[in-house]
Amino acid sequence: MLDGVRIIVLAGGLGKRMGGELPKVLTPLNNKPIIGYLAAELKKLELSYPPTIVVGAKAEMVREYLGNDFNYVTQEQQLGTGHAVGCARFELIGTADTIVTLYGDHPLVTANMVKRLVAKHHEAQAAMTLGVVKVPDFQGWREALINFGRVIRNEDGSVARIVEMKDATEAEKQITEVNPSYFCFSAEWLWENITKLENTNAQSEYYLTDLLQAAFDQGQKVATIQIEAEEALGINTPAELVKVSELMLSRQA
Known about the structure:
The protein is α/β, with parallel strands linked by helices. It has a single domain (5-198, 208-252), classed as Spore Coat Polysaccharide Biosynthesis Protein SpsA, Chain A, CATH 3.90.550.10. It has nine helices and eleven strands. Strands 1, 4, 5, 6, 7, 8, 9, 10 and 11 form a nine-stranded mixed β-sheet that branches. A two-stranded antiparallel ribbon has the order 2-3. The longest helix has 15 residues, at 238-252. The chain is globular and about 45 Å long.
């Protein structure tokens, strides 16, 4: 059992690129809604508190599918991942020592990964712990990871910074360790800093990933664990849906 841990799942997007009428997380993936796979893994964790699902677009459909085993927070406007987590602040502040943030459109996350992420976070006594992925290349299904931020490390192996693909130099683009943005936070640190996020970017959104820079700027400890590459896969387009479907079916064969 994960005592003192609360999990937040971001599931508020409509998923316009998917082209359907359903909320993105309810898009069928091998005859089951995308979020159903993550929900099944979370139930294996025997959590002290029900996971918090941040809903937005067509929220009632997501609630109806997932049922009463989850806690729901509504994100009225889609203003980014940092804003989505911030919507849960009032309800969750003071209720747990540790917060894990996951995504409803990432169906291959496992309960074991979440346990390892929390264990490393506590062991390292970090402000923030990341699940990161090291791949040999970006070929085949791993091509989906090519646009993820690159993990830049110091000589001692600690994380120096994360460089987003759009900001990376040619040399940095060759780095094959990437950040899928699975985070475990010290709750006190998270709630103190989530309100300081700014939306000075092209999308005018508040990004959860900006908390990494806040941690670095403050000299806070940032820890990492290596996770399986397929666990990093999210679904944003019909093409990605097909690729993840094929990968899942090949794993079952």
